[in-house]
Amino acid sequence: MLTGKYCEHLPLYRQSEIFARQGVELSRALLSNLVDACCQLMTPLNDALYRYVMNSRKVHTDDTPVKVLAPGRKKAKTGYIWTYVRDDRNAGSPEPPAVWFAYSPDHQGKHPEQHLSPFWGILQADAFNGYDRLFSAEREGGALTEAGC
């Protein structure tokens, strides 16, 4: 079910219909509850991955727009997936690379500010002006070091 939803992009209502054709009645509400339960079980893994990525000397970040269907809306709106990459293999680090993702419903600089609040080091980012405050001396604890793309 999770593979169908997140890898094959099958909405839960379609999965419910597929299961029904095979004689298995699973309501969308039940499938939604199962997705939520799985996400709750994975929270400690997500938190550990976040801490690992932020505990690096250098992080690369980028954002990607995604179309999102909101409940009760007929038109899709644009949300954003923020990607944070830790990978120092080119610098000879034996540490394994990792990627942490976050979602936001809009494209405001407050999101990377919040995501990167525990990070201190070199941030490789594009020219999105939402990153500017991260490189400012006014940032709590001091500015990050900027590495352009």
UniProtKB/TrEMBL annotation:
Residues 2-149 form the Transposase IS66 central domain. Pfam families: DDE_Tnp_IS66. InterPro entries: Transposase-related, Transposase_IS66_central. This is Transposase IS66 family protein. It comes from Shigella boydii 4444-74.
